[in-house]
Amino acid sequence: MNTTLKNLVLKNWYKILSVLIILYTLTWGLLNPVPRLDILNETIRNVYYHVPVWFAMLFMMTISMVHSIKLLLNNQLLSDLKAFNASVIGFFFSIPGLITGSVWAKFTWGTWWTFQDPKLNGVAISILIYLAYFILRFSVDDEIKRARISAVYNIFAFVMMNVFIMVLPRLTDSLHPGNGGNPAFGKYDLDSNMRTVFYPAVIGWVLFSYWLFELKNRISIIKCKLNE
Amino acid sequence: MLELIKKELTLEFRQKSSIGAVLVYVVGTIFVSALCFKAKLDKPTWNALFWVITLFTSVTISGKSFLKETGGQALFNFLYYKPQHFILAKIIYNMIFMLFLSLITFFFYAFFIKNEVENMGLFLIVLLLASSGLAGILSLMSAIASKANGNFAIMSILSFPVLMPLILVIIRLSKQAVDGIEWAGVGFNFIVILAALNVLTVALSYLLFPYLWRD
Question: N or C: where does chain B have the smaller number of CB atoms within 10 Å of the terminal CB?
């Protein structure tokens, strides 16, 4: 009994950890004191919810790309399945990311969406890229062919998306806090109080996304077996 | 490889109808937009409209660059050429073709609407880098689309989001050319990024295409 419990914990430590961390950041994120900054005020707490979700999305997209590369190298359909699942989870995470961002923007910038900000455009484009990826998958019937074609597109799109989200926003001013002279959680503003929530939140959501990814993998493997 | 590029070019010139079709397509599009806007365009709109027209033309035209490689032709290419050479040849051929296309577009655009460009040298550099970048991305996308049952809608769905970073840099640079900013004030980091994007796409195509190639 004791050993099985031990095994259970050893196998599932990251799931337990992620739930605990997320619960902690959800509550303490609302309770802990934050610095008062112009415009941002209390909305700075959004940093605990909005940013970690994007980190989780990027993490999933990276996993998806790694599995796509794996597929091209070893030709195993399992990698294709994993690449697809990871991109679905990543896509799923973009929805809360968009909603938290949009609500926040309404209260600070006064609008739900703006085209002035390269980060917002980048996100819109990356969502379009992944929709295109899904459509590409649906349009090819042959499994091996589909795996290879979509892997090629995934890798190409991932690189382009990174150019978009990482490089371009640094060239032009962004409305995002921390860019273009806006107050932010940068060096000066993210005090140690906020760090105690922000960093765990990132870790928690990343672990949580990995849990979802594993679950989705198990479901699709079972489905494959049932089909056989 | 040179031989491959030459083959593509001769094929293109032999099919006079396709070059004619491209010309008519470009002139038609520009004429329609000239009528729609009644030639009352301010500079930013002029710039944006030009690149939208070029973007759509190049996606339409280069969509077919792999679509015709089917059946026996594809098998011959597969047996006869190395995939890396093949994609490079395609890209170089597409670059030449796109440059030609964008120059023609620019000529008719200036003719029917107006030539707003004040820093011509910069604009030509942008045109060159833009057409090679477009060619690089669209060649690979066309190869993917042709493998995915050659559906044309797929081609545009796949290309537009991937082209976005390129297009945004191009528009910004070309805006500077249109505004006639002196060479000293030109954003050279944008030119560097544009060139880097070109290198990146060609390198990625070179690496990834062999995996598409085997069926």
Answer: C
